[in-house]
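Internal ticket - ligand job 332, PBG:
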Amino acid sequence: MSVNQAPYPLSRFRRTRSAAPLRNLVLESTLSVHDLIWPVFVCDGMQERQAIASMPGVERLSVDLIVGAAQEAADLGIPAICLFPYTDPSKKTELCEEAWNPDNLSNRAIAAIRDAGVEIAIMTDIALDPYNINGHDGIVRDGVIVNDESVEALVKMGLAQAAAGADILGPSDMMDGRIGAIRAALESEGHVNVTIMSYAAKFASAYYGPFRDAVGASGALKGDKKTYQIDPLNGREALRCVERDLREGADMVMVKPGQPYLDIARQVKDRFGAPTFAYQVSGEYAMIEAAAANGWIDGDKVMLESLMAFRRAGCDGVLTYFAPRVARALIG
Ligand code: PBG
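stdout (structure tokens):
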């Protein structure tokens, strides 16, 4: 804080707030369509749209419709789309083999968007939960989520996504050592320009509830994810995880959830300077939508304000289910 600030009335903060041009002149941050990554849910079928009860306004889309959605996002100037598959329960196994099937739903969606020539970066999720009969992000043996064997599976999963045409791999599993292992495999398989956005500071959060409905993982999950995701009380541990992932070769890092963890985003940006993202997760989306549906808040205004807060906190971009709506609001 400036110690040279003149005392009132020489200094009046309301002067630069007194009219729109002056307010615009002193803006400290910006919110642009280039700051958005749009997470979408993919399901089987053709021309299939499925509503998600806990995420009003968000739908699962079949691969053919996802291509159109990606094109729509690209036309709005949104730089990236992030794919999450709703996997048929019959394909879920203990060892999660479907995760690295080159023809799984997610990889088919990547290839379809690529084949259609849509100019958008394609981001993926690397975690075993959509394919796991136990609903966990890692392989479960005797009730324990085993780390190193899970990392081997995650590497195979990431390589299959890179081969399908993904641009940004998003390991969201929180196993130790996965960033280094995935990076090394990408390098040795010739995918040198495939990037990694690590879910580096991912907290064990109740805000993920609606997402687990969206990908059909709620029923399968036994117990919680506290043995691998970070405790919401631990900010320093989160920073150490970010540092570790950057040292292992993450190109970009993410804080998740978003709004309740803006203090972490700010510290990550200040301390490491790396491209820093936050995920405005399903529960954050659902809360805004629910309050807006009740007429208790102005949904569009809160949507924009919530995203401005990420930018003020130092985030380079935000994964948000609101992405196309925000883009339209910004375009005006
Ligand atoms: C799965 C994954 C989750 C989210 C993204 N990837 C859920 C979880 O860890 O249980 C949450 C996204 C959201 O809530 O919007 N590894």
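Auto-summary: The CA atoms of residues 104 and 129 lie 14 Å apart. The chain has a mean pLDDT of 97.
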